[in-house]
Each structure stands twice: as structure tokens, then as C-alpha cells.
């Protein structure tokens, strides 16, 4: 058989792959064109009940199905078709109605139809007012967009800025907070937004208010004018100025609850309780004790109140897990608390309005608003944390009697149905005495209570709606007592108001009121001082003492300072009250006590050479401060010890002006070299003289030692035969003591009453004694030498 020709040769495997790619590209093109045609033919007036009824791409449909999203909510059925058409939208819907999917689905679909890739840059920007809400939106985006090839990123504060900058240029969809996004626009060079297609603002009313106004204006300036903008919130803004700032073009207003009977879900039961300010904490604790198997969110107006209520109730142990969340916490802590509360079945979390918007906590039973919200919109957002997605829920609003009329009127205007209820008296508990004991024993808790009180009073004072909030209508003294404080801290703005009123009163009238002779003056009763008064007057002796002093200084605690002064007078052991000179006589002391001014100069020993003139009681009091005295003391010079232990002054940099004043640098350098050379020459001469002196001393010592050795040898070697003395050498040896003489023996120890002779024999040391026996006295010189040799062995 003939070999196959080239035209009958089988195809290579690479050709099959290229053919498959080309077929896939053609299929994708056909699918995109078909999808675009379906969107163009879409009738926005028709009703859509399920996601499968909408012209969605296969990756989006698969992601929705995998995430168990099938049925469309009211806001989704109205907003998604308009957004797919490319319209700008203003969406207002009830809390928990599914607004997140209403803008995430159009974002994915519009980028998919435009065949967006990572090389095209940023395509959609989603802005959220809080970090927690941004994280929640990002998680939903990951779920429904799992089958897409887009890259998405989360940009919020509290994370590494450098890591975000490295990845920012490759992102197609960004979920962010306003402050962090503006920071990247100003500092990240690789971040470009020229190709942006969609801008989404979730909780738009909060983003558009004064808190984020400057940041949003700066972000919009960076964005291109030709884009699609979507605004969603539970309470939407319609102000022309806000819409003009965002460059909206003929926006479509989508509202779900405007024509409905209520702005809140029908499954939400809403109540309010008339509770005086002094009974709020008692009622709250009693409520938590009665619902220990429920999941509760308690809203307060400030983070300091959240901290105080959390710490107080944590010590009281109501029997339910307690948490707290506010904006001052670190990002990791906030995420941990949010996830922990979401996973719990029964717990209570104290939070500020950072939790009020958009967050989806599953199965929340109760929403308690301990502090009245600033307006009806904030109330709607708060209660929206429960009764989500047609589930049941309950909400309770605590109202002071002064807030009732105005707040109910605002809620009625927003179509919020609410009814009054009363707590059961049998289950009411009072925790005032326990809080007082806790504040007395724990200065830190008392400090937190004072800061919480001040922050609450200020939050009321700055409210715009004076029909509801008026600072003079609140029982602040009773509220301070209910927190365990021995008195209400004076607040700076209230003191200013009182001073302003006193300033407008005529002096004659003021003096007549103070010194009225018509009415009899009642004698002042002695004030009874309790332990709580003394507690409030003392200074905290712990790490919070500095902050506590600052709090007193800020809030004008003049009475506390006077009381503390009186307390110090009682315990003035070795404390300086007056500065008196050494030579001052007793007569001068009596004269100085008569008036405020102290005549003459007084010298404080050990402070300075100059006399300190004390001409007033105030200056005299200041001189008792160690810090003031330290400033008046003469400052010495620091010394440094070298290796030889000699002290010298530290080398410090000279002032530039003094250096220039002394002449040019070259002349000073030459002078310094000359002086240094002279010092080295003098030191060299001193070293040479010292070396000569040491050499001379060594020579003298050597001579003295040699002379001493010679003199010692002459004295120790006696001559056997001297010319002047006719002494016999035998007489010298005869005078030497022998080994067995009694004089050389040690003295015998006296016996004690219990010892006998046998013990004395045992105690004798056994020594080898050499006894030199001489039968006769030595007569010759040889005998004498033999005797001496025996002695020396």
C-alpha cells in the first residue's frame, strides 16, 4: 500500500485546540449579542417574580442559584430592570428588603455585557458608610459572582495601606468606605478611575449628609462624568443639590414603601415606653433579665455610654452573654464581635449607630433604643436590624416624658406605626445601690460613668430638633445618681449659659438679691458629708488620674477643687501651706495673715540665689507645687566620666548664631588646631617628665634595696672569733636551747573535773621526736660542728 499523501495526513492536536478556542469565542460573541438584544427588548413595566424571568448571563444565574436566591423582592423587581437598561436610580425601600442584590446584579451584568477584563481597569465602585456594611456587601458579591472572572477588592480602614496599593490597579469592582477611597485616590499612583462605568452608593442618605459631604465631593471630582449612578437607602434623599453633586441624569425614583401603610416591615412589632431618665438603666437591666434566651441589640447615642453600660452590666451578670461595639474599637475587634454576635443564638450587644445601617444579623429578636434617635430616619434604620426578609421581630423605644410628643409626631409623619406599653412592676429591679458601690470601689468605672454622662448631655445639647430635645427639660441629676455617681458633673456649655444669664442681670438687682436686708437671713445648716461626697472629691490614684483631672478641668469643676482643698487641709501632714523666710519674725507672720498680699521678698531655701517675691495668696499656693519649684531651681551642668574616672562636661552642639558671631569658619578652625597642638605639646612634656620621675624612683628603690640587703648580711653572720671580744665559741652554742628542754614544750592544759589520767594519755599527739644525747660537752671545733649539724636536721 502506498504511503498516505499530505492531504490525507491526520490533523495535529494543536489545531483541534485552536479550533475549539475559535468556536468558544464565536459562541461567546453570539451569547453576548443575544443577551444584549434581550436587555434592549426588556419591558420595564412588566412584573418579574423570579430571577430566571430576567435576561441574566449564565455566570450570574448560576451564582444566584448556588446562593439560594430565586424570588425577587419588591425593590429588586423594580430596580434591576431599570439598572440593566443603564438608567440612574434613586432607590428607597424598607430595611431588610434586599437592596444589596438590587445593585450587585446590575453591576455584574453590565460589566459582563461589556466584556470587561482586568486590563480595562476599574469598572464599578460601591461606596458604603461603615466598614461592617462594606464587608457584608463584599461577601454577598463573592457569593453571587463566584462564576465570573472579574477581580473584586475590599478597601476599608484598619488594614495595611501598602498591600491595598499593590493590588488596587488590577481590580474591576471595588467595595469601599469614603475616607479610605479618597486616600487611595490621592496617594496611590497606579490607581486610575478614567474607565469607571458604574457608581453605587449604599445607604445614600447617610453618605450624602454632612459627615461625608467633603469626602464624596472629592471622590466625585476624580470620577468621569459619563457613568451610571445608583443610590439605595431605606430613607432616600430627593434634594436637588445632592443630585446635582453626583451628576445624575434623569434618575428613576424607585420607592417601595411610599404608598404603603408603613415605612417599616409589617412583621415588626413596635412599642415605646415612657421612662424617666433616672429609671432607664433599671428598666433596661430588668428587661434583659427577663429575656435571657433572646437575641438583643441595645442602641445608645455615644461610644462612652456603650462602654459604661457594658462594663456595669458585665459586673452585675444578668445571665446572658454581653458584647459591645462602637467606632473607637480596632478593625479586628469589630469584625470579631460582629461575627460572634451573628453566630450566637442568645446574646445582648450594646452598640452605637455604627451598627444601625444595612447590617444583617440573623434572627434578632429585640431592638431596644435606650437613647432616643436624632430623627425618624435613624429610628427606621435602627429597627431594621430585626424583622428582616419577612421574619418577625420586636422593637422598643425608651422615651423621656419631654421627648414623647415631638418624637411621636415625627414617626407619624414617616408612617411608622408604634404603640405604647408599660413594663411589669413585679419584674422591675433597681441597680442604683449596686452601681454606687461599684463606682466607689472602682475609680475607673466611676471615670467611665462621668465621661458617659458628659457625652450624653452633649449629644442632647447639639441636637437640631429643639422641639424634641431641650437640655433643661431632662433630669440630669437623677440620671447621674442612677449611674452610681455621687453628683452630676458640671458641663462646660451649661456653665456658659448660666454665666450669660447672670451677665444680663443688672448689678443693682443682683446685689439686692444677694444682700437683701428685708428678709431675715436663715442660719446655714452644717453640711453632712457622706462617703460618696468624699469619693467624688478625691483624685483617682491610678492610671486614669490624668484623664480624670482633664475631665474636671474641661467641665468646670470649681466646686470639686474647693472641696478637695478643704480635704487637703484636714490631712496636711508635712505639706507646705505658706512660704516663710528664715529671718521673718512672728510679728510679720501676723501682719501677713491679715490681707491677701504678703509684703516683702521671701527666699525659699535650696531653690535659687535670687529672692522670690510672693505678693499674693495665689502665688504662695503655686510655690507649693514641686513642678513650679523645679523651674526656679538652678540647672547644673551634666558631667561625663572618662575611662580614668575624671569628670568633664558633655560635648554639646553650639548655637549657629554664636558660632557665626565668633568669626569665619576657617579662622576658627585654624585657631582650634593651634590650641589643640599646644595642648598636645604640653601633654607630651608632662608625659616625659612623668616618665623621668618614675625612672628616677625605680633607681632609688633599687639602691635602697641593695643597701638593705648588704646591711642585713653583715648583721646576721656573727664572727666566730673577734679581735675585740675574747669570747669562747663553745659558750655561744651552749646557750642555744635543745629540743628536749622543758622551755620548748607547750604549756600543759589543766584537767577538767570529769577527765582522768587515761584520757590525758589518749590526747597526747604521737610525734617522732629526735633526742640529741650528748654524753660530754663538746671540747673541740669538730665536736661543735657535729652538734650544730644535729640541731639543724
TrEMBL record:
<feature type="compositionally biased region" description="Basic residues">
    <location>
        <begin position="1"/>
        <end position="10"/>
    </location>
</feature>
<dbReference type="GO" id="GO:0003724">
    <property type="term" value="F:RNA helicase activity"/>
</dbReference>
<comment type="function">
    <text>RNA helicase.</text>
</comment>
<dbReference type="GO" id="GO:0032040">
    <property type="term" value="C:small-subunit processome"/>
</dbReference>
<keyword id="KW-0539">Nucleus</keyword>
<dbReference type="InterPro" id="IPR011545">
    <property type="entry name" value="DEAD/DEAH_box_helicase_dom"/>
</dbReference>
<feature type="region of interest" description="Disordered">
    <location>
        <begin position="1"/>
        <end position="25"/>
    </location>
</feature>
<dbReference type="GO" id="GO:0006364">
    <property type="term" value="P:rRNA processing"/>
</dbReference>
<dbReference type="Pfam" id="PF13959">
    <property type="entry name" value="CTE_SPB4"/>
</dbReference>
<dbReference type="InterPro" id="IPR025313">
    <property type="entry name" value="SPB4-like_CTE"/>
</dbReference>
<dbReference type="InterPro" id="IPR000629">
    <property type="entry name" value="RNA-helicase_DEAD-box_CS"/>
</dbReference>
<keyword id="KW-0694">RNA-binding</keyword>
<protein>
    <recommendedName>
        <fullName>ATP-dependent RNA helicase</fullName>
        <ecNumber>3.6.4.13</ecNumber>
    </recommendedName>
</protein>
<feature type="region of interest" description="Disordered">
    <location>
        <begin position="683"/>
        <end position="777"/>
    </location>
</feature>
<dbReference type="InterPro" id="IPR027417">
    <property type="entry name" value="P-loop_NTPase"/>
</dbReference>
<feature type="compositionally biased region" description="Basic and acidic residues">
    <location>
        <begin position="521"/>
        <end position="534"/>
    </location>
</feature>
<keyword id="KW-0067">ATP-binding</keyword>
<feature type="domain" description="Helicase ATP-binding">
    <location>
        <begin position="80"/>
        <end position="254"/>
    </location>
</feature>
<keyword id="KW-0347">Helicase</keyword>
<feature type="compositionally biased region" description="Basic and acidic residues">
    <location>
        <begin position="16"/>
        <end position="25"/>
    </location>
</feature>
<feature type="region of interest" description="Disordered">
    <location>
        <begin position="579"/>
        <end position="602"/>
    </location>
</feature>
<dbReference type="GO" id="GO:0005524">
    <property type="term" value="F:ATP binding"/>
</dbReference>
<dbReference type="GO" id="GO:0016887">
    <property type="term" value="F:ATP hydrolysis activity"/>
</dbReference>
<keyword id="KW-0378">Hydrolase</keyword>
<dbReference type="GO" id="GO:0003723">
    <property type="term" value="F:RNA binding"/>
</dbReference>
<feature type="compositionally biased region" description="Basic and acidic residues">
    <location>
        <begin position="683"/>
        <end position="692"/>
    </location>
</feature>
<keyword id="KW-0698">rRNA processing</keyword>
<feature type="domain" description="Helicase C-terminal">
    <location>
        <begin position="280"/>
        <end position="439"/>
    </location>
</feature>
<dbReference type="GO" id="GO:0042802">
    <property type="term" value="F:identical protein binding"/>
</dbReference>
<keyword id="KW-0690">Ribosome biogenesis</keyword>
<dbReference type="InterPro" id="IPR014001">
    <property type="entry name" value="Helicase_ATP-bd"/>
</dbReference>
<comment type="similarity">
    <text>Belongs to the DEAD box helicase family.</text>
</comment>
<dbReference type="InterPro" id="IPR001650">
    <property type="entry name" value="Helicase_C-like"/>
</dbReference>
<dbReference type="Pfam" id="PF00271">
    <property type="entry name" value="Helicase_C"/>
</dbReference>
<feature type="region of interest" description="Disordered">
    <location>
        <begin position="497"/>
        <end position="534"/>
    </location>
</feature>
<feature type="compositionally biased region" description="Basic residues">
    <location>
        <begin position="693"/>
        <end position="704"/>
    </location>
</feature>
<feature type="compositionally biased region" description="Basic and acidic residues">
    <location>
        <begin position="752"/>
        <end position="763"/>
    </location>
</feature>
<keyword id="KW-0547">Nucleotide-binding</keyword>
<dbReference type="Pfam" id="PF00270">
    <property type="entry name" value="DEAD"/>
</dbReference>
<feature type="compositionally biased region" description="Acidic residues">
    <location>
        <begin position="584"/>
        <end position="596"/>
    </location>
</feature>
